[in-house]
Write a structure and sequence with these properties.
- This protein is of the alpha+beta class.
- It has one domain: Alpha-D-Glucose-1,6-Bisphosphate, Chain A, domain 4, CATH 3.30.530.20.
- The protein is about 25% helix and about 45% strand.
- The chain contains 3 helices and 7 strands; from the N terminus they run βααββββββα.
- The protein has a 7-stranded antiparallel β-sheet.
- The radius of gyration is 14 Å and the shape is globular.
- The model has no long low-confidence stretch (mean pLDDT about 95).
Length: about 130
């Protein structure tokens, strides 16, 4: 099983950033507009459509407002295991976002890692003025 992790500093307060990150239904579209073009949630599942045409279904695992932490997993035929976590940490007047995931099979590591790398840059730019 592979582990992927990305961390950025966002020039906005942790509470403001968490309002977007912690929004299971619309968070992806709000934090990464242009990279994510649509999200739709029904119960514990959401469908996320990316600008490149990729469509994934994600299952909400947990949302912890006190810890500013959301956990979810991509579900589908090609995914044996996925556990993704986004957590916002206070850092003075700014904050840090840590986004990590465990994934199987290993063949998904490269595309998921590349998507996270691109996505987190969009998140940093978008939420830097939250």
């Amino acid at each position: 099983m592979a582990f992927i992790s990305r961390e950025i500093v966002i020039e906005s307060g942790a509470d403001d950033v968490w309002k977007v990150i912690g929004d299971f239904e619309r968070g992806p579209s709000r934090m990464a507009p242009g990279f994510v073009i649509h999200t739709k949630a029904e119960g514990e599942l959401r469908v996320v459509t990316f600008a490149d045409g990729t469509v994934v279904t994600e299952r909400r695992i947990s949302v912890d407002d006190d810890a500013r932490r959301i956990a979810y997993s991509v579900v589908g035929e090609r995914v044996e295991h996925d556990n993704a976590v986004m957590q916002v940490f206070e850092d003075g007047e700014r904050c840090r976002l840590v986004w990590s995931r465990d994934v199987l099979p290993d063949a998904l590591v490269t595309p998921m890692s590349q998507a996270m790398e691109h996505g987190i840059k969009v998140v940093e730019k978008t939420l830097g003025n939250a």
